[in-house]
């Protein structure tokens, strides 16, 4: 392939840029990346890499009027990093000379290392592994461009400025994914709180638990709440898994700090318990197999399986381990309260981030105070102390 200079034409690039003039086409990126692979990073300044230059500008890596090699290299490094570990990411790094010490290697030497990674001949790597690395890097460059577009749209929404409808709708769709995790996180927090608060309450003739259950009284009701919490935890894990498949586990929020905090909260929800990764996997698979992912079907699968029964027993042991006198000042080493806090952190962060752009979706409205499960419970107890009634009767009156 003949070297293209800035003074020469770049076949395909005039048609390879999107109508918006910001994001290059996939084909144009592949063409540029093939040239980078052939010539190497030291020659970036002499190559006419229109698509990569446009992509670097779309990602705000440069504001220069002239193509900037440093920006293009930074873009390549970000794209290759997104491929993750494993042979594909390593192959892409060697293909473009991004591995330390390989920047000035000839193309054939870089190809030889790609061949070694896959245990194939250099000719086979040229026909198969190298094209795959180039194509996947192009995809990641496009992903970086589109994510930056969404971030720009996000800023416009927050400032109540005109925004392209397609990008605004994409933000709503992204928050729909966050809320599919938000719901079980809220349930998990509420059910764990209910379990530990129930064990702390004095016996009451009017407490809202069913005396006909195998475990009557406070302990039985606490165990029921803990069982509900296990279902919510399985839901949470399954939704996070779906999010990773659907969106690559990528959080797009108002800032990278918020994204890191949300990611940390999700990690902490799964960390502060006595279940293993294999246990989490079993719960996800069982919930996915449950009829309509409903709690009754899930509970039946748990009870019918030795693995499920063992997981349930460990979970009950975890919830019962909370010896905190108060929810306001939990013990530093209480894993139950740590899980509750992580859930509430996630819910709060997602709510606050949505509220920053909610004026676009519900102009002029503000989020009303949310009904708290604990408040509803205390109201029910007060009503029963004043007027004994069955739970079903109470519900009918509402």
Task: Write structural notes for this entry.
This protein is mostly helical and 398 residues long. The chain folds into 2 domains: 22-158, no CATH class; 165-397, no CATH class. 67% of the residues lie in helices and 0% in strands. It has helices at 13-16, 26-39, 50-58, 69-82, 86-95, 107-118, 122-158, 165-200, 217-247, 256-271, 277-289, 295-304, 306-320, 335-355, 358-361, 373-386, 391-397. The protein is elongated.
**β-strand number:** 0
User: How is the main sheet built?
Assistant: none
Tell me the distance between the termini: 77 Å
Gyration radius from CA atoms, angstroms: 28 Å
How many domains is the backbone divided into? 2
Strand content: under 5%
Helix content bin: 55-70%
Shape: elongated
Structural class: mainly alpha
Instruction: Give the low-pLDDT segments.
Output: 1-21, 388-398
Element-level helix/strand string: HHHHHHHHHHHHHHHHH
Q: How many distinct helices?
A: 17
Average pLDDT reading:
80
Please provide a brief summary of the model.
This protein is mostly helical and 398 residues long. The chain is 67% helix and 0% strand.
Which features would summarize this protein structure in a list?
single chain; 398 residues; mainly alpha; 17 helices; 67% helix; disordered N terminus; disordered C terminus
